[in-house]
Design a protein that fits this description.
This protein is of the alpha/beta class. It folds into 2 domains: about 5-95 and about 290-325, NAD(P)-binding Rossmann-like Domain (Rossmann fold, 3-Layer(aba) Sandwich); about 100-285, 3-Layer(aba) Sandwich (Rossmann fold). Helix content is about 35%, strand content about 15%. The chain contains 13 helices and 12 strands. The strands form 2 sheets. Strands 8-7-6-9-10-11-12 form a 7-stranded parallel beta sheet, with helices on both faces. A 5-stranded parallel beta sheet has the order 2-1-3-4-5, covered by helices on one side. α3 (about 60-65) links the parallel β3 (about 50) and β4 (about 70-75). The mean pLDDT is about 95. Bound molecules: 2-keto-D-gluconic acid. 2-keto-D-gluconic acid binds near residues 52, 74, 100, 288 and 289.
Length: about 325
C-alpha cells in the first residue's frame, strides 16, 4: 500500500478520507517543528505529503524527494513554497483558501478592538493586583466608530475584515492592493489609494497580504513614520511583512499608538519580547484559523486535494493555476 505523510495530528475525518482512498497514513505527531532535512528523511517511502505548519518546500526539497507526487498544504499561505520549482519537478501543490476567511478576519477584528481598549494589558494589571481604585483619567483607550480602516491586501480575508468594520462600526474603508477589488468597491464603498495615502489617512492599518519579495518588511520605520501618531497597526497575515525592530521603536517613541499582531517574526515570539509588556499592544500566537470549524474544513480540504491528485485527477485548489496546462 502506498503511504502518505502528514506532518501534524489533524482531524480524524481527514485522515480517514485518505485511508479510505486506499493509502496508508503516517502521522508525525511530535510537538516539534521538523527541520527541512528531517522532513526529507521522513518523506522517504511516501508518495505524497500533507504539509501542516510552515515547511520549506524549495528546489532542494523537490530534488531530494523525487518519490513525492503531490503535496497538499493545510494553510492558505504558501510563502515557504517555491512554486516554480514545484512546476519544474511536476509536483502539484494545493492550499486551503476561503474556508478560513471569517475566522482569520475575526482575529484581526478582535485585535483591533483589544488594542483600542488595551484589553490584554488591562487583564494583566488585574493579575498583578493593580486594580485598586477608579481613576477616570487612566487606561483610556480610543473608539473606532466611523474611523478609517486601511486594508493592505484586500483579498478574501481583507474583505471579511472590511465588511465587519463597515457594518459593525461604520468605518470608512480604503485599501491598497496589487489590483483593484471591484467587489469591495461596490459592496463596501472601499476606495483604492496608494500605499502612501493608506499610511497617512488610516486610523487603523490592517495587513492581509501575502508575504512576498514585494511585501517583505514593507512596514518599516519609513512606513510607520508616515502613519498618524494615533494609528493602530494590525497584522494577521505574516510576521515578515513588518520589521519587528522598527515596530518596537515606533511604539516606544509614540510614532504610532498601538499594534495588534497574530503573526510575528520569528515565530514563536520569545517571551521576553518588549512588545509583550506594552500597554497598547496585543499579541496572539498565530491563531487566525484556530477554530474547531475552520481547522476541520482546512484538514478536509487538504485531504480532498491530495486524494484527487493521487487518483490522477486535478487538485481542486491547486495553487499554480497553470500547472496542468503546462504539463
Ligand atoms: C495556519 C495560516 O494555521 O493558512 C495560513 O496561511 O497562516 C494559518 O491558517 C498556519 O499556516 C499553519 O499551517
Amino acid at each position: 500500500m502506498e503511504k502518505v505523510l502528514i506532518t501534524r495530528r489533524i482531524s480524524d475525518n481527514a485522515v480517514k478520507l485518505i485511508q479510505e482512498a486506499g493509502f496508508e497514513v503516517t502521522i508525525y505527531a511530535a510537538s516539534k517543528n521538523l527541520s527541512q532535512q528531517e522532513l526529507i528523511e521522513r518523506c522517504a517511502g511516501h508518495c505524497a505529503l500533507l504539509s501542516v505548519g510552515s515547511n520549506r518546500l524549495d528546489e532542494h526539497f523537490f530534488k531530494s524527494c523525487p518519490q513525492i507526487k503531490a503535496i497538499a498544504l493545510m494553510s492558505v499561505g504558501y510563502d515557504k513554497v517555491d512554486i516554480a520549482s514545484a512546476r519544474k519537478f511536476a509536483v502539484p501543490i494545493s492550499n486551503t483558501p476561503d474556508v478560513l476567511n471569517e475566522a482569520t478576519a475575526d482575529i484581526a477584528f478582535l485585535l483591533m478592538l483589544s488594542v483600542a481598549r488595551k484589553a490584554f494589558y488591562m487583564h494583566k494589571t488585574i493579575e498583578r493586583g493593580e486594580w485598586t481604585f477608579f481613576d477616570p483619567l487612566k487606561h483610556l483607550g480610543q473608539e473606532i466608530y466611523g474611523k478609517t480602516l486601511g486594508v493592505f491586501g484586500l483579498g478574501r480575508i481583507g474583505f471579511e475584515m472590511a465588511k465587519k468594520a463597515k457594518y459593525a462600526y461604520g468605518m470608512n474603508i480604503i485599501y491598497h492592493n496589487r489590483s483593484s477589488n471591484v467587489k469591495a468597491e461596490e459592496a463596501l464603498q472601499a476606495k483604492y489609494v496608494t500605499l502612501d495615502e493608506l499610511l497617512r489617512q488610516s486610523d487603523v492599518v490592517t495587513v492581509h497580504a501575502n508575504l512576498s519579495e514585494e511585501t517583505k518588511e514593507i512596514f518599516d520605520r519609513n512606513a510607520f513614520e508616515k502613519m498618524k501618531p494615533s494609528a493602530i497597526f494590525i497584522n494577521a497575515a505574516r510576521g515578515g511583512i513588518h520589521h519587528e525592530g522598527d515596530l518596537i521603536t515606533a511604539l516606544q517613541n509614540q510614532v504610532i499608538w498601538g499594534a495588534g499582531l497574530d503573526v510575528t517574526n520569528p515565530e514563536p515570539m520569545r517571551s521576553d519580547n518588549p512588545l509583550l509588556q506594552m500597554e497598547n499592544v496585543c499579541v496572539l500566537p498565530h491563531i487566525g484559523s484556530a477554530t474547531q470549524e475552520t481547522r476541520e474544513k482546512m484538514a478536509m480540504m487538504a485531504a480532498t486535494n491530495l486524494v484527487a491528485a493521487l487518483r490522477g485527477e486535478q487538485m481542486p485548489q491547486i495553487i499554480d493555476r497553470e500547472f496542468y496546462l503546462a504539463k
